[in-house]
Amino acid sequence: MNYTTQMDAARKGIITNEMKVVAGKEKIEIDRLRALIAEGKIVIPANKNHKSLDPEGIGQGLRTKVNVNLGISKDCCNIDIELEKVKKAIEMKAEAIMDLSSFGKTEAFRTRLVDLSPAMIGTVPVYDAVGFYDKELKDITAEEFLEVVEKHAQNGVDFMTIHAGINKETVQVFKRNKRLTNIVSRGGALIYAWMELNHKENPFYEYYDELLEICAKYDVTLSLGDACRPGSINDATDASQIKELMTLGELTQRAWEKNVQVIIEGPGHMTLNEIVANMVLEKKLCFGAPFYVLGPIVTDIAPGYDHITSAIGGAIAAANGADFLCYVTPAEHLRLPTLEDMKEGIIATRIAAHAADLAKGIAGAAQWDHEMSQARQALDWKEMFSLAIDPEKAEKYREESSPEHEGSCTMCGKMCAVRNVNKVMAGKDINILREDDK
């Protein structure tokens, strides 16, 4: 039996190879997985042209996935450095990589990325349009925007951020309701500017059916972008954000009618107490579609530490319904991330994702922590390092400050609680001052 997309297959009762892989990874019964894909509550982004892909599922009941952003800009356009980041991101087990390149002819980098990466690949085609056509934004036509989308699909991109929800109605709400930081989404700002300069409807909204045809042809998952995501805690959960979210819900249903898989993108900056309500709103207004969040960043005052502000928000968001976390690095708001920035961002986001999986009771999540606790109780440093989310850093810290006695660390030495309780429970002496007491 033939099928066009993973959703189409699921609705026809077909178990695809991608579904088999995901079911095995997630320890989920395969018919349950297929049913949730059919309903749109789980997606498997898997472009037919991405031959090196190791499929992952995103959505209800699955592990929280992590995305890494990279790519070249006009100020930092070294492709070799970005490819080094790609290799490191894959090594560090990121499930997705988004190429956000915004300068020059990006196809060469994008195709190398797709060929190299077993992780799913995402892009934002509107970033590429200016360089692709070598035209000013105002002069790009609606048809040309769609041509760029098709080019990315042909290249093998698994999911694309498309800011289709910022239509004329959303723009009017935005204009009537003053914001502190206006529109901070780069893609959303480009679409808004194009609409204002040309006095036309958003081309991705006006020609949404044509967009869906492209997605269905290649099985590209549509990641409906949040142009009006809050760029400050002041603007969180405001009229513009909610109006756009309502529109994204309508667009989700239209996509599902064409068997196109959908992810919904979400905030942004917001205080801790608003996160849970935002997760509930998205799941309600977008009919349970997987939710992909940037952060949320929970305070605006920490440039240089936004991997921490976003990990705090990401853990709360994922524990309460978000399915996919976009990493944030210490360089957020400041510069293009370096390799070291990227590593810190990945680790912070993976910690947030795992903490959420523990809270959600995801199959197998707690076992990792249990094994680490066993290794700590046994003072088995080699095993602790092998289980660490960042073994390299853990070993480095240990090596930089060697204890007198191997069974302890330089924080407590022979006063180590674990060491001493182990000795007492084994019927041994724990004289702390005696040199012969090892």
What would the keywords be for this entry?
438 residues, alpha/beta, TIM Barrel, 2 domains, 8-stranded parallel beta barrel, two-stranded antiparallel ribbon
How is this fold's topology laid out?
Blueprint (H helix, E strand, L loop, with lengths): L5 H6 L5 H10 L3 H10 L2 E2 L14 E2 L5 E6 L8 H13 L4 E4 L7 H10 L3 E4 L1 H9 L8 H13 L4 E4 L5 H9 L9 H13 L4 H4 L1 H11 L2 E4 L14 H19 L4 E5 L5 H14 L5 E4 L11 H14 L4 E3 L12 H22 L4 H13 L3 H7 L3 H10 L16 H9 L13
Unreliable stretches: none
Overall body shape: globular
CATH architecture of the largest domain: Alpha-Beta Barrel
Tell me, what is the CATH class of the largest domain?
A: Alpha Beta
What profile does the largest beta sheet have?
8 strands, parallel, barrel
Number of domains: 2
Order of helices and strands: HHHEEEHEHEHHEHHHHEHEHEHEHHHHH
Output mean pLDDT: 95
Radius of gyration: 24 Å
First-to-last CA distance: 69 Å
β-strand number: 10
CATH topology of the largest domain: TIM Barrel
Relevant CATH superfamily of the largest domain: Radical SAM ThiC family, central domain
Strand content: 5-15%
Task: Please bin the fraction of helical residues.
Answer: 40-55%
